[in-house]
Design goal:
With about 250 residues, the protein is of the alpha/beta class. Helix content is about 40%, strand content about 25%. The chain is built from seven helices and eleven strands. Strands 1, 2, 3, 4, 5, 6, 7, 8 and 11 form a nine-stranded mixed beta sheet that branches. The protein has a two-stranded antiparallel sheet with strand order 9-10. Strand 2 (about 30-35), helix 2 (about 40-45) and strand 3 form a beta-alpha-beta unit. The longest helix has 29 residues, at about 225-250. It is globular and about 55 Å long. The relative contact order is 0.13.
């Protein structure tokens, strides 16, 4: 198996070096498609000898599919700039590269997220299983919010040991901004798809979100950080439906 690691970037100088370091013994090629970063992202990538291509932003799925098409190998390892492989995951990937793998095999892994310096093991954040290795002949990204891989054939998912380490949030404000950004995007997506607004969703959904994450998904075990994560997730849920309500009200 020859494996191409594929990354999309925009101003990732704080993260990209860690990501590239973790791929050194794993990937046969690294392809970075960058949306014209204004920081040191390109210089760092050049240090590691990656294939660096600049492309205006097309949307998450289109940008990732373009990057996959640029790869020299059919086997893709899709990884974000703020992610890195744990030692155990590195070993697991290197093992599958020695095997006879068929196109219908796809590989998933657990993602462990770091929140302001602390690894979060609950709140619905872990194990956060992701499919990240597959053959591009049978799979392409689709969707613009929390994009997923659509496969053209029946696949067999094989789960790898180890974690994909996600260094996403360096401050509570960073987390809040991202959650609210995606909430508004989801509200617009609901509107475009014709989803009907009801006061019920604005009132009940945030409450359900908090109870599910904090109690049923054991967010309280993550202490004060877990409480904050669950509260912001509930607020984002409310914002999603408020955005939908406002869009529908403006149309009337």
């Amino acid at each position: 198996m020859k494996l191409s690691a594929v990354i999309i970037t925009k101003n990732e100088e704080q993260n990209i070096r860690r990501c590239l370091e973790s791929l050194q013994d794993v990937a046969d090629e690294i392809v970075v498609v960058d949306s014209f970063s204004t920081d040191a992202t390109e210089q760092i990538c050049v240090e590691y000898g990656v294939r660096f291509v600049q492309q205006q932003w097309l949307g998450y799925s289109q940008q990732k599919n373009l990057a996959n098409n640029l790869a020299a190998n059919d086997w893709i390892f899709s990884i974000d700039a703020d992610e890195a492989l744990s030692s155990e995951l590195k070993n697991a990937v290197m093992e599958i590269k020695k095997q006879n793998i068929t196109e219908d095999n796809v590989f998933s892994m657990n993602r462990l997220t770091n929140y302001c310096g602390k690894w979060i093991s609950h709140c619905g954040w872990y194990p956060d299983k992701k499919i990240r290795i597959w053959n591009r002949k049978v799979g392409r990204w689709q969707g613009e919010i929390h994009e997923t891989i659509a496969f053209s054939t029946k696949t067999k998912v094989l789960h790898l040991k180890g974690d994909l380490l996600h260094y996403s949030f360096v401050s509570p404000k960073d987390f809040e901004n991202q959650m609210f950004k995606f909430a508004e995007m989801r509200g617009h997506d609901y509107y475009q798809k014709g989803k009907k607004y009801a006061n019920f969703y604005i009132i009940v959904s945030p409450i359900f979100s908090f109870i599910q994450r904090y109690f049923f998904q054991l967010g309280f075990l993550d202490g004060a950080d877990g409480l904050h994560i669950c509260r912001i997730a509930a607020k984002a849920t409310r914002l999603k439906y408020e955005t939908l309500k406002n869009l529908q009200s403006n149309r009337l």
